[in-house]
Design goal:
Elements (H helix, E strand, L loop, with lengths): L14 H32 L1 H25 L2 H10 L6 H18 L7 H8 L3 H15 L2 H17 L2 H24 L9 H23 L2 H7 L9 H35 L1 H18 L2 H17 L3 H28 L2 H4 L8 H38 L2 H26 L3 H25 L17
Length: 465
């Protein structure tokens, strides 16, 4: 079967079931990507260099945060497997273990605020860029706690298959962020003009809005009754450590990739402001097109978890292949546009105040998008199969692959490009090589089938006869 709609489209494990769950998650991830893009576009109107500074600050911020966020959000797999196994009373306690983790680590994150200036100086960027990076990073640190709470509340709804509520949670944050971005960056809507800091505080308040909406929905009476979302507040040592056992490797995998990619971008920044700006714009364009596919991956995780909870690995496998075919067809279309019509992505970032600088940066972006187009085809493979493995609980293998391969294949070659004064494209070719290698490894791991016997939930107690 080449196309996912030619066979079993309406059956269990088919495209219709997957897209029904994935579509709101795709929109939700589009909102998150749009929020980042709004920041970049508005900042590019303020100062073209602010785009590169914001990207560098965000990458440094998300490197530690993403470890925590994806640990907390791994509660999605616990919820999915408990729901599949017909044990709703265990869902609330699982979510509460993630909430305990989120509050403790989110508050601890504030310890990075006084260290922001020193962290940015270590990067080695120009003083003007470092100053902007410091301001933006300090603001973002206050968003850590609400970000983790949002991830946990979204895990409850996503794991149950209620992806429309996830859309509501994230959409509320986007709305608040978009309005405050415009107001606080430029001093519109009666708000002060805070520039770079305004973009940061708009992000904080947007995420806080999402967290409050998520908590309000989580504690509705029907969920308190069926899923014990309030009565399950107590610390459960066994359940908490199981969440850590599977969730921490999940977070470490994403953090390891992010750390390697952050190092890649910081090295690119050492090559010059134009190289950093062009790379940042190319990445942002790719995020706009690719990040919605995270919704497809999340849907695969949920359905794999639910099917394994039901002891139906055959359906879990069928769902994964359907997800891969849909994701690949989408990314193929986007890759063609990257090469054939790059200007349709570039116009949002154009800054008319410095035409010569923009021409140099935009020319570099068009060049880099060719590399992005190539690795995008393999990114769909990496995404779907890694999310399927996570839905089963095979998080340690996924993490080991990223830890072992990211630095020698992607970061080290980028450093050599900088030291030897080679073309920026050589560094991006190394990044593409990393994506291709990891994608093939995850595909092979999935084909081996060991994941079919894995579970993250405990065995239900037997009833006395």
């Amino acid at each position: 079967m080449i196309f996912p709609w030619t066979e079993g489209w309406r059956s269990e494990g088919g495209g219709r079931e997957l897209l029904k769950l994935a579509f709101p998650l795709i929109l939700s991830n589009s909102f998150w990507t749009l929020q980042i893009t709004i920041d970049r576009v508005l900042l590019s109107q303020l100062d073209p260099d602010a785009v590169g500074a914001a990207m560098a600050a965000v990458l440094i911020f998300y490197t530690p945060l993403i470890l925590l966020q994806f640990t907390a959000s791994y509660a999605t797999t616990f919820v999915a497997q408990y729901v599949g196994a017909g044990r709703p009373e265990r869902v609330g306690p699982a979510i509460w273990q993630a909430l305990h983790f989120s509050v403790i680590t989110g508050l601890a994150f504030l310890g990075l605020v006084p260290l922001a200036g020193d962290l940015m100086l270590l990067v080695g960027h120009e003083p003007r860029l470092a100053a902007m990076e410091t301001v933006y990073f300090q603001c973002l640190c206050y968003s850590a706690l609400p970000t983790l709470v949002t991830a946990t509340t979204a895990a409850f709804f996503a794991g149950r298959g209620d992806s429309w509520t996830v859309l509501i949670i994230n959409g509320s944050g986007l709305l608040v962020n978009a309005v405050l971005d415009y107001g606080l960056i430029f001093g519109k809507l009666g708000l002060p003009a805070w520039g770079m800091a305004g973009a940061g505080w708009a992000t904080v308040l947007g995420v806080l809005a999402s967290a409050l909406v998520g908590l309000g929905l989580l504690f509705q009476r029907r969920y308190r009754k069926e899923y014990c979302t309030l009565s399950g507040w107590r610390f459960d040592g066994d359940l908490f450590w199981r969440l850590m056992r599977y969730g921490l490797p999940n977070g470490l995998h994403v953090a390891a990739d992010t750390l390697a990619f952050t190092a890649f971008m910081l090295i690119v920044g050492l090559m010059g402001a134009e190289e950093l700006a062009a790379s940042s714009i190319a990445i942002t364009i790719n995020m706009v097109a690719f990040m919605p596919m995270l919704g497809m991956g999340q849907a695969v995780t949920v359905l794999v978890g639910q099917r394994l909870g039901q002891d139906r690995p055959d359906l879990a496998e069928q769902t994964t292949w359907t997800g891969f075919k849909l994701a690949w067809l989408y990314m193929f279309t986007v890759a063609v546009l990257y090469v054939a019509a790059p200007d349709i992505f570039l116009f949002l970032f154009r800054n008319g105040d410095d035409t010569a600088k923009w021409e140099a940066v935009s020319g570099l972006v068009r060049y880099l998008l060719r590399f992005v187009a190539f690795y995008s085809l393999f990114d769909s493979m990496l995404l779907v199969f890694s999310f399927a493995l996570r839905g089963a609980g095979d998080t340690r293998f996924v993490t080991a692959v990223s830890l072992v391969l990211s630095w020698p294949i992607m970061v080290a070659p980028c450093w050599l490009v900088y030291r030897w004064g080679l073309d920026l494209g050589v560094a991006w070719a190394a990044a593409a090589g990393y994506v291709v290698t990891v994608a093939v490894i995850f595909w092979l791991r999935f084909r081996m089938g060991k994941w079919k016997t894995m579970r993250v939930i405990e065995t239900a107690p037997s009833l006395a006869v």
